[in-house]
């Protein structure tokens, strides 16, 4: 099938339905069906909807016909993986790999399932979420709840092999339960999931920066600890590229030292960055625990992408994540050095059609500035 951008009628329908979805989400779905419920319940309902929709081929067909936007300017190859577009779902929304069919038909370039852990994990006590609409943000305190990497990676492999165009990555993390032991136990925990993932997904993301666990973040606490983890992971034979999910709030020198360690290992990409722990200047109730997504991440994440790209050149591919809501913000992130762009909060605050809004808008901005391919714009602002 040809590109949507090159078919007058398909393009017109895609634009009209995207505008309609944007209006419907803002004025009906968000106020009456999503934000009218507690965020934990809205999250469960969203997953139940995706499970149901994923079983209905006619609905999936309609979804693709209305929402998927394809354009050669968006195609890109990063770390040897081909992407129909640079946009992906960031880790954490689809922990147990239940949304893949819906995301594939909506036209995501990729999704990251997980984070998943070697043992099934119940996560922290609820509530897991608080909304902060004044900041386009969610406060997240899930604590890595998931059904275990054994099952999640089985599902991810199925999703990847059945997807029409979407790549599937799996985020692996350390189990957050009462069996957590010393550093070596933590390393083995990652290794179990890495062995399970080897060769079964397009990419693996190693999450060393979850802010919500009882064990804390020992692998970003010192370069030595990170080195030990990746010494062990290097010994696991795997064909797919590995990204590392980095923390947002380290002082630059500490962050740079961690990246310098990763540069010596079998790591091809950095995902910059995880949730924001810095509440400075924000009005947030005292009892709320967790890290911040969305708006509070935008500026800090773009700056960290740019600084990392400047310092480490082409050593790593960079997936930029945090507070990307608009095509202009995505374009800015790419011009700052990101090869790929991920998001979650934009879906909650703007709606599921935001993937199409981002793709259409980015394609327009790239063409306006004379870029033939998205890869040509990576890092041009540096
Ligand atoms: C509901 C939710 C759950 C998340 N869970 C994870 C997770 O399991 N692993 C992870 O690496 N990041 C997790 N994150 C962080 C996101 O992947 C992302 O880094 C962060 O939300 C910033 O992107 P955004 O502003 O587009 O939401 C989670 C975020 C949200 C909103």
TrEMBL record:
Pathway terms, separated by semicolons: Pyrimidine metabolism; UMP biosynthesis via de novo pathway
Domain Dihydroorotate dehydrogenase catalytic: 74-366
UniProt-listed CDD domains: DHOD_2_like
GO molecular function: dihydroorotate dehydrogenase (quinone) activity
Entry annotated with the keyword Membrane: yes
Organism: Bifidobacterium pullorum subsp. saeculare
Pfam families for the chain: DHO_dh
Name of the molecule in the record: Dihydroorotate dehydrogenase (quinone)
């Amino acid at each position: 099938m040809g590109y949507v951008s090159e078919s007058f009628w398909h393009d017109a329908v895609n634009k009209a339905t995207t505008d309609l979805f944007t209006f419907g989400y803002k004025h009906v779905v968000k106020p009456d069906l999503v934000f009218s419920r507690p965020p934990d319940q809205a999250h469960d309902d969203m997953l139940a909807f995706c499970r149901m929709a994923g079983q209905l081929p006619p609905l999936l067909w309609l979804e693709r016909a209305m929402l998927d936007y394809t354009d050669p300017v968006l195609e890109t190859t990063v770390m040897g993986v081909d992407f129909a577009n640079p946009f992906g779902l960031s880790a954490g929304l689809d922990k147990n790999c239940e949304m893949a069919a819906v995301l594939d038909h909506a036209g995501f370039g990729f999704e990251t399932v997980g984070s998943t852990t070697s043992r099934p994990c119940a996560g922290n006590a609820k509530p897991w979420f608080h909304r902060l609409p004044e900041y386009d943000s969610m406060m997240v305190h899930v604590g890595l709840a998931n059904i275990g990497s054994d099952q999640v990676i089985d599902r991810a492999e199925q999703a990847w092999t059945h997807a029409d165009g979407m790549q599937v990555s799996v985020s692996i993390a350390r189990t957050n339960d009462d069996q957590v032991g010393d550093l070596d136990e933590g390393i083995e925990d990652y290794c179990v999931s890495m062995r399970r993932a080897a060769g079964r997904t397009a990419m693996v993301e190693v999450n060393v920066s979850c802010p919500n666990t009882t064990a804390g973040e020992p692998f970003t606490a010192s370069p030595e600890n990170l080195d030990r983890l990746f010494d062990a992971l290097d010994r696991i034979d795997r064909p797919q590229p590995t990204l590392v999910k980095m923390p947002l709030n380290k002082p630059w020198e500490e962050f740079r030292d961690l990246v310098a360690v990763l540069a010596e290992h079998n790591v091809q990409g950095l995902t910059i960055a995880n949730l924001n722990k810095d509440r400075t200047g924000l009005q947030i109730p005292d009892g709320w625990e967790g890290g911040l997504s969305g708006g509070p991440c935008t500026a800090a994440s773009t700056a960290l992408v740019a600084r990392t790209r400047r310092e480490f050149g082409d050593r790593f591919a960079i997936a930029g994540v945090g507070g990307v809501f608009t095509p202009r913000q995505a374009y800015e992130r790419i011009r700052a050095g990101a090869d790929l762009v991920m998001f979650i909060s934009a879906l909650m605050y703007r709606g599921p059609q935001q993937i199409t809004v981002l793709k259409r808008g980015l394609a327009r901005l790239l063409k306006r500035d004379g870029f033939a391919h998205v890869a040509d714009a990576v890092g041009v602002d540096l």
